[in-house]
Amino acid sequence: MLVVSAGAAWCAGREALASADVLRAQQEVDRVKRMVTMGALPRKALEESQAALTEAKDRDLLQSTLYARDGLNSITEEKSRDMMGAAERQVQRSRERLAAAEKKVDEGVAPLTSLTPYLEEFERNRVVCSQAVAHARLVHEMQEMIRAERELQSRIDQLTSVRPGAYRAAEKFDGNGSFTALHLRAIELGFVKQFRRVMPISAKGDSEMHRGMGYDHRGRVDVAVLPDSTEGMWLRKQLELMRIPHIAFRGYVPGQATGAHIHIGPPSLPYRPLTTATGPTMSPARPGF
């Protein structure tokens, strides 16, 4: 628990710093604009301060998406596209700064060692861009998984009531209706012990994407494994032994894994925000997630 709290505090600190950077950059733009109006600074100074503001905003955007405290839960496909754009612009800026520094070296104005910080900056931003691409891919896959689940869940009775031996796009296990954070922790530990890797949870509890698609996913978890794979069959067996309700979604078409995953917990319900004196809000979430 201490580790989680420390991690959350670290992320919160980084977000506060990023927002402070934007505020300072905006204040600098305002200051320079006044100086330019007075004729004390050239127009180019204003353009440079505005470019610095844009760069600060891109860093802030990456902080709130790529390094968000709640991972993918607060990210939508639109936000992931914005994140990609910010990461690509960061790479382009560092490439341009590196090119300008290389020109000075070629002209003999600066030593070769002066390129080091520019090369390091370019490499850092290139790595961040790669991370943003991977993050955006996960967001897209999660969105497709939610769409598949919504479609399949709406036809769950039809899909699970087929003749013996026929392909089933989904299999439902009702269990005793109980699924808690303690259950999840035990399953995660068992998965690590069995497969020597962390269980690939694609959605844990509530998320922007689930709400955006009209689903209340609190108290539920999606695991990105094929139901009929070694990992999927192990997970389903554990869930059955623990009498935990779940749905194994194989996808739309036999032989294809689009949207395939295991949904742990009761079926997701339609999202219905409660109306209070302060406006719409969610009903109390289940303990843990």
List its traits.
289 residues, alpha+beta, 2 domains, two-stranded antiparallel ribbon, 8 helices, 10% strand, elongated, disordered C terminus
What does the secondary structure layout of this molecule look like, with pairings?
Blueprint: H1 2-38, H2 43-65, H3 77-106, H4 116-154, H5 156-160, E1 170-173, H6 181-195, E2 201-204, H7 208-212, E3 215-216, E4 221-223, H8 230-241, E5 246-249, E6 261-264, E7 269-270, E8 274-276, E9 279-281
Antiparallel strand pairs: 1-5, 2-4, 3-7, 4-6, 5-6, 8-9
Helix pairs in contact: 1-2, 2-3, 3-4
Total strands: the figure is: 9
Shape: elongated
Q: Enumerate the spans where pLDDT stays under 50 for 5 or more consecutive residues.
A: 1-11, 253-258, 280-287
Mean pLDDT score, rounded? 80
Number of alpha- plus pi-helical segments: 8
Instruction: Specify Rg, calculated over alpha carbons.
Output: 25 Å
Give the % helix: 55-70%
Percent strand equals 5-15%
Number of domains: 2
Order of helices and strands: HHHHHEHEHEEHEEEEE
User: Which structural class do you get from the secondary structure elements?
Assistant: alpha+beta
Strand order of the largest sheet: 1-5-6-4-2
Largest sheet: 5 strands, antiparallel
Distance between the termini: 15 Å
